[in-house]
UniProtKB/TrEMBL annotation:
SIS domain location: 131-268
Protein name: MurR/RpiR family transcriptional regulator
Lineage: Bacteria, Pseudomonadati, Pseudomonadota, Gammaproteobacteria, Oceanospirillales
Signal sequence interval, chain numbering: none
Organism: Vreelandella glaciei
Keywords carried by this UniProt record: DNA-binding, Transcription, Transcription regulation
InterPro entries named among the record's database cross-references: Homeodomain-like_sf, HTH_RpiR, RpiR-like, RpiR-like_SIS, SIS_dom, SIS_dom_sf, WH-like_DNA-bd_sf
Stretches that traverse the bilayer: none
Domain HTH rpiR-type: 5-81
A Pfam family hit: SIS
BP term (GO), one: carbohydrate derivative metabolic process
Source organism superkingdom: Bacteria
Claim: Transcription regulation is one of the keywords in the record: yes
Recorded GO MF terms: carbohydrate derivative binding; DNA binding; DNA-binding transcription factor activity
């Protein structure tokens, strides 16, 4: 489904005014538009974990006479647009009988490659470069990502710490991670990584930082993410996976790209900082400089 689809824009605009059940149904429509066109209302409601009547109410809230009208809308939109490989990947979420582990691995990796390709869309690239501009202009960048999102936040902070001292990771023992915001200033920003299910602490710290006058920059998974409404800038990344868990590969790729763009802004300074880091690690003997001896074959 096209990101510029008028109904999609309408759902996003009205999302905050909907009840919790209608929000759950609306989010499922946003994330699975092809499914709306292909399955019955009862099956779609079951997948969205709501009652079938909720789908009917949602259709009427959106200005349709009933669910069949909204299904027809999605079906016509789907006929006008082909998503190519991405659609094929999404249409085969369950392994067929006789599928080998190699087949599953191939399917997952192919799906990830499609998701990474979607990040090359002009709108996403525009968002990435705009966020790099905002990060470069900030005197300090606070970085937050909890639970599964921690790996993305930590990666960004780790790389940025090699380039200088502007990055502060909001992570600490005994619940002290947010204490670094006590002396935060309005010329600083917070980069938050969070995907559904969104952690309460991430949202609370985001709101606290915003109330203190800091700009919120977010990497999240949906236009109806609770971070989208409070963020100055947002980059959206797909998270659907063929495993039992969501994927963070696209979010991690965004982190890598942002770090590279920031380093390229002042290449000589970045190279000096990296050389300083190399010298430091050499003194500490952080990394092994010798290769293990190989045993002769047959031993």
């Amino acid at each position: 489904m096209s990101k510029s689809d008028p109904l999609r824009d309408q759902i996003i605009a009205q999302f905050d005014t909907l009840s919790a059940q209608l929000q759950q149904a609306a989010r499922y429509l946003l994330e699975h538009p092809e499914e709306v066109a292909l399955v019955s209302m009862r099956e779609l409601a079951r997948h969205a974990a709501v009652q079938p009547a909720t789908m009917t109410r949602l259709a009427k809230v959106l200005g349709f006479q009933g669910y069949n009208d909204i299904r027809t809308y999605y079906a016509e939109t789907l006929r006008r647009k082909s998503d190519g490989f991405a659609a094929k990947v999404r249409q085969h979420p369950t392994a067929a009988a006789g599928t080998t582990e190699s087949d599953i691995a191939h399917q997952m990796l192919h799906g990830l490659s499609v998701q990474l390709t979607t990040l090359c869309a002009p709108e996403t690239l525009k968002r990435i470069t705009a966020m790099a501009d905002r990060l470069a202009a900030a005197n300090k960048v606070y970085v937050l990502g909890l639970r599964s999102s921690h790996v993305v936040a930590w990666h960004f902070h780790y790389v940025m710490s090699l380039l200088g001292e502007r990055s502060v990771h909001l992570d600490g023992p005994a619940g002290t991670g947010g204490d670094a915001l006590m002396r935060a200033k309005s010329d600083e920003v917070v980069l938050i990584v969070s995907i559904k299910p969104y952690t309460v602490d991430s949202l609370a710290l985001a709101q606290l930082a915003k109330d203190k006058g800091l700009a919120i920059l977010s990497i999240t998974d949906s236009e109806v993410s609770p971070l989208a409404g409070i963020s100055e800038q947002t980059i959206y990344c797909p998270t659907e996976s063929y495993s039992f868990f969501h994927t963070l590969t696209p979010a991690l790729a965004i982190s890598e790209v942002l770090c590279t763009l920031l380093a390229e802004r002042d290449r000589p300074t970045a190279l000096d900082a990296l050389q300083h880091a190399d010298d430091h690690h050499l003194q500490l003997k952080t990394y092994s400089n010798t290769l293990p001896r190989r045993s002769p074959q047959g031993e």
